[in-house]
Amino acid sequence: MSRIPDSSTFGPLLETRVADAWVDYNGHMNDAEYARVFSLAVEALMARIGLDVAGRAEHGYTLYTLETHLCYRQQAHRGEALMVDLTLLDHDAKRLHVFFTLRNVDGDPLATSEQMLMGIDVASGRPGPFPAPVAAVIETLPPAGDEWPSAAGRRIGIVRR
């Protein structure tokens, strides 16, 4: 159902479709399923940086999600094609601060997910620095630069005027 695009060009990180089981009583994708798609995007990111099943076994290393902030923009409907783009907001020796944008085939943003991911040494179960080959690939991820996406860094609150 989902596919990870060829890594020779970055392009979308993930391409999928709205599954029948993801559609709720309102006739569009259930809110929890947006989180599922972003979880699939984390798995695609892991594969892209060399932490697929084989890479996790080879390096004894994985990623955990520490925090996520999901913003819903538009509805997605049964069977609709979806793609997820990645922007690397920041990183250090063991953390990734990433921003995913879920889009439809017209490129319209449907939702965003800002996430903090932590690299974990599987043997110790504790945070640890990225293995060198993984760190090298992280350096090639599309950076935000000086212009972060407008939804990045948002906080939840009721605006009082």
Automatic annotation (TrEMBL):
CDD domains in UniProt: 4HBT (cd00586)
Gene3D superfamilies, alphabetized? Hotdog Thioesterase
In its UniProt record, a GO molecular function of this protein is: hydrolase activity
Keyword field: Hydrolase
**Keyword field contains Hydrolase:** yes
Q: Say if the entry is tagged with keyword Translocase.
A: no
Would you tell me the protein name for this molecule? Acyl-CoA thioester hydrolase
Q: Which organism is it from?
A: Chromohalobacter marismortui
